[in-house]
Amino acid sequence: MMLVPYYRSAVRQFDNRIRAVGAGQWTSSTPDDDWDVQRLVRHVINVQNRFAAGVTGRPSQATTVDGPALVDDWAAASASSTQAFAAITDWSVPAPIPTGRSTLEDLGWLVTMDLTVHAWDLARAIGAHDELPNDLLAAVLDRAKQAKDRWFRPEAFAPSIPVPGCTDDLTELLALSGRNRWWRPA
After folding, report:
1. Best CA proximity match to 79, nearest among 104, 45, 38
2. How far is CA 124 from CA 19, 56, 136, 157, 186, in A?
3. Crossing angle of the two packed helices 169-176 and 134-151, in degrees rounded to 10
């Protein structure tokens, strides 16, 4: 299945950024006006935990820690979710997504998109390198455009931002999720 390498790439991107969060940056603002770095990271950890729990049948654990302790929770959640991704043999199995039911493949791509976009969010929030691998962006953008009505629900994402026809994949993916590519902390 082509999804697993892209998911692993998204995990590496987020992992690189979370390990770069400085001691005073956990309360820094992010491109999502309602979230600081801690809340963003908790969201990502909880998504990884829910995915792994849904695949393995084990109960999902929500993280309750703050600050640097989130790095350890992230390491455990991403390891568990990566194992769950690798263990899937039938991606056509029905699975819940926030807007209803779909397949494990659709859910897996949604989780990969979420992780990719939030790796960028985290990079921008902490002033880290915000470029992402071209192959990851192209694959995630392709899936996101196909699933935009299912994935980008108004209660979870800001409205999409129109972009010119010839723009790069990162700018287009971020615009689909209601993010301005040139966002900077205030």
Report:
1. 45
2. 14, 33, 18, 17, 11
3. 20
Q: pTM, whole model, 2 decimals? A: 0.96
pLDDT at 17: 98
Cα separation, 127 vs 20, whole angstroms: 9
Least Cα distance to 67 among 93, 41, 99, 49 occurs for 41
3-state SS, residue 95 = strand
Q: Looking at domain 3-176, which of 3.40.50.300, 1.20.120.450, 3.40.50.2020, 2.40.340.10 is its CATH number? A: 1.20.120.450
105 touches 4 (CB < 8 A)? no
C-alpha gyration radius of the chain: 16
- Residues of the chain short of pLDDT 50, as ranges, are none
Interatomic CA distance for residues 69 and 162, integer angstroms: 38
